Amino acid sequence: MAISSEAFLPQLSPIQIGETTRLLGEIDEFKGHWRRVKELNADRLEELRRVTTIESAGSSTRIEGAELSDAEVAQVLQGLSIDSFRARDEAEVKGYANFLAMIYEGFDAITLTENHIKQLHSVLLGHTEKDERHRGKYKTIDNHVEATHPDGRKEILFHTESPFGTPLRMSELVAATNDVFASAEIHPLVIVARFIVDFLAVHPFQDGNGRLSRGLTTLLMLQNGYEYVPYSSLERVVEENKTRYYVALRTSQLAMRDQPAAFGDWLIFFLQALRTQKRGLEAKVDVERSMLQLSDAQQKVLDAVALKGRMTAPQLVTKLKIPGRTVRYHLDSLARQGLIEAHGQRRGRFYTRSASGALPTPLADPGTNGIIAEIYQGGKRIRKGELIKLVKKHGYDARVVGLLHGRRIAHLRRDSKTGESVLTSRGEEVAREHLFAMRLADRPVSS
Questions:
Q1: Residues 206 and 349 in one domain
Q2: Residue 227 falls inside a structural domain
Q3: Is the backbone of residue 236 left (phi > 0), alpha (psi -120 to 50) or beta?
Q4: Looking at residues 289-309, what average pLDDT do you find?
């Protein structure tokens, strides 16, 4: 059945409508200001993009089980081999960096078509020999998302589209997405969110779907005027909020099976992640503006610390061939400006780049599903005193206890005989969904 344009208009609660409006306004305001931001030195913008590529390649592959740190990713992209036992991780990083470079350089010519999606998939997996047979080709066997138990038993956590149904689903999804973009009746970020959540539900390729979806997000945002995205890593935001990512994704995908427009949870997470990405870039730009006032020597010191990750004054003296007193002067100056941070006592002290703007702040968890899940695991019922302790442990006021019982569709009900709080059928459903998403977040995900 073809996807209607109404499926791109999300079903939102009044609270979600207000949150969506605020988030879109803040993100679009920054989009409008970016032209002035680009007055920064072109070399510094290029450095921002280089760092973002490293962060994005590292984060996007780590989300799916790779183990390379950002420093190791930087070495790989410089052509160095890290570890023969992690050759696949290195290949995935190289593929993702090439994939991003193609999008950054040619986004205006890469229209949203099935052929272009397949070509991007080929580039993404271009360095992994194991994937050669299925690069750029839709899956031929089922790739349901599975969990492997300690005893080796496997359990399907999410049923993706069948290989037989994938070509039609992708054809309909791409056509519908292009039609809605052309109509200009729905905000482009809402369209992007709807495309991505459905793309990942289909899981069209045997491997690489998660990484491909994050690159496609960047592609579609660039095509819709969000020119700042190459300078701040959205993948890093997702990595830092992996549990919430899977909760929102799976909750919406399950709901969309009955109501194709029921992707509100995913939309809110997606827009919150974009806001965090944007705020991270704002902080980085503030730092870059401060750097415009640096001397050549200070810039060299700062660049050396950023490249290595951490350095001591003696190491900088050796590397830069600058007298020790001069190095210490510049280190003190850079630390006062907040561009680097000093760690340890004077003997053995080392320096790192300031954390300001380096990593986005993890998104706050607005829900109480974790509380419900713990009650479920503890036998589906809990005494009042224990419930109050549990609520406080999760960082909530004790008054939340009443809300859990008093919602229109309550998660808890009181047992009149024992006085205990017992999970309702809706509460049990919420708990299972939360635990399901947590399990996805805690395991390397096949994509």
A1: no
A2: yes
A3: alpha
A4: 78
